[in-house]
Amino acid sequence: MSLKVRFAIGTASASTQIEGDMPPNNWTRWAEQGRVVDGTGPNPSTNHWRRWEEDNELMASLGLQIARVSVEWARIEPRRGHFDTEVLQCYRAEYEDLVSRGIQPLVTLHHFSHPVWFENEGAFTREENVPLFLRFARKVLEYLGDIGDDWVTINEPNVYATQAYLFNETPPGGKAQWGKLRSTLRNMALAHIQCYGLIYDMLDTKERQVRVAFAHHVRAFAPMNPRNPVHRVFTWIDDALFNRGVEDSFVLGKFSAFLGTPTTPITPGVYADAMGINYYSRTAVTGLSDGTFPDVPVNDLGWEIYPKGLVQAARRLSEKYQLPIWVTENGTADNGGEGKQERFRCRFLLEHLTAIAKACADGVPIERYYHWCFVDNWEWTEGMAQHFGIVSMEEESLDRVVKPSGYLLGEIISAGEGCLSGLLVGFCVPFRHAHWKLRSPVLFAVLSQGPHRDGRSRWWCDDADDHLCGVHSHHGSSRRECIR
């Protein structure tokens, strides 16, 4: 594939994490039970429900081409069978505004959250609940189906199921409940397949190109000690359970012996028009729990920063299913410090986009990149403590402040195709914004060092970047800082 194919860049978000004024759902209940690290709940978060026009305008000012959004089921159907059409009209106004600004929405129907009444009925652990999700999806399509061509049915089913029923980390909470894990993954796959058909049945596919995907969380797994047979075996198990174990059921309608077969008949076929992948990190494997290699770059959650894993997953999945790749989420927790909004997110963005550019040059059909996220938001069990956004908020007013990474992403987009190609040969992005106060164009606009949760630190500028960084002695080490 040539780099001349269209490559679009934007951001991703989820309703529960940004909207505020959140009606009761499975996550408001979880927060009320004290299960969030910083004690916060999803209200007010970024108050996007009341400030969406401001956020859309800011997205457009940065030149974002695409935006992954989601609708809040609990807001649309607060009681079983009762749909709030005013809410649907509000979503319609928001998405029409995005389109009017030249931003293409990708609408997600289920992003971890659903009404309390659905949770009380067993959610996706019960196959008989799948029609409830499809009824909700039908109502959304009735009101929004003519606005967007692109849809994500379900976000990260593997994360949803394992965290809820294996590790007791998310609602409803369960430890080693393998039966519920299996039934949830099986029924979510059934819901995706039937929703795929529903979208095609309801939308006019003769006059427009409709594309449907699910967002699959992929993680790179590697044995902590490659010589340890236990580590190698668990690497295979983790990869099979978390990555590969759900793919065929969602994409092809082929269910493994582990998941079991739904009672509803499913005809094997292709139930995705693109492969959505959410990628964040690599895990060093010693068992079923997460681990990190020593002496690797990590973010402020202790997750390894490993761009190679993104393109490895993209290549594997594109070859396996012969589908284009949408990077539906990729981002990092960078909480800044020492008076700075962020320390390494710019470097993170450039390294991952460079890896994508190289993969595209090698023929991997990556079409889109959705950075997680736009505004620092409520990060599920981490609350408001972890910052993934390219835009921050003033603490009291919630006014938006664009971070350096936001301007960087805007510059990359404005440079167009040439910038993505140029990353292959060390293209220097000509930053125009006065906020940067740069004396020369730079490729890696990032501070060199930052503390990490486990006490480690990394030198983020490589030797090849000395011309970009001021170098001076710091406690006997060579410390480099970005020219600002």
UniProtKB/TrEMBL annotation:
GO molecular function: beta-glucosidase activity
Biological process terms in GO annotation: carbohydrate metabolic process
Keywords for the protein's UniProt record, in alphabetical order: Glycosidase, Hydrolase
Gene3D superfamilies listed in its UniProt record: Glycosidases
Protein origin, superkingdom: Bacteria
Protein EC: 3.2.1.21
TM ranges: none
Similarity section: Belongs to the glycosyl hydrolase 1 family.
Full protein name: Beta-glucosidase B
Source organism per UniProt: Corynebacterium urogenitale
Record gene name: bglB
